[in-house]
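Q: Structure tokens for this one, please.
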Amino acid sequence: MQNSAVTIAEETTGTERVSIFDLYASPEKIAEQLKRSGQLVLTNKEQPMAVMVNVDDSTMEDTLLDLFRLRAQKAVKAIQEASVRSGLSNMTLEEINAEINAVRAARKSR
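A: Here is the predicted structure, written as tokens:
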């Protein structure tokens, strides 16, 4: 059974799902499907495990950079959310500077 987020993603992006078995059994067919659709969600036992994106020599580097940026943005968002949950987002500038100075002092004393 698909979860609703996956169903919504498929409906809004038109992303097709292919199983890892299909990729193994018919790689040429899946490669053509990827080329035609631009992206596919690879599944294992009906659970998403990877996103395949069609690239060529001229787009691969930019596509990888986009993925790295996205991961970095997600990491920053997670850090910001953790900061809010823990109350650290309310630190004053003086408290932040004191923390920085304490870490620097600890590094120097090593």
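A few notes: Helices lie at 4-13, 20-25, 27-37, 60-86, 93-108. The chain is about 65% helix and 15% strand.
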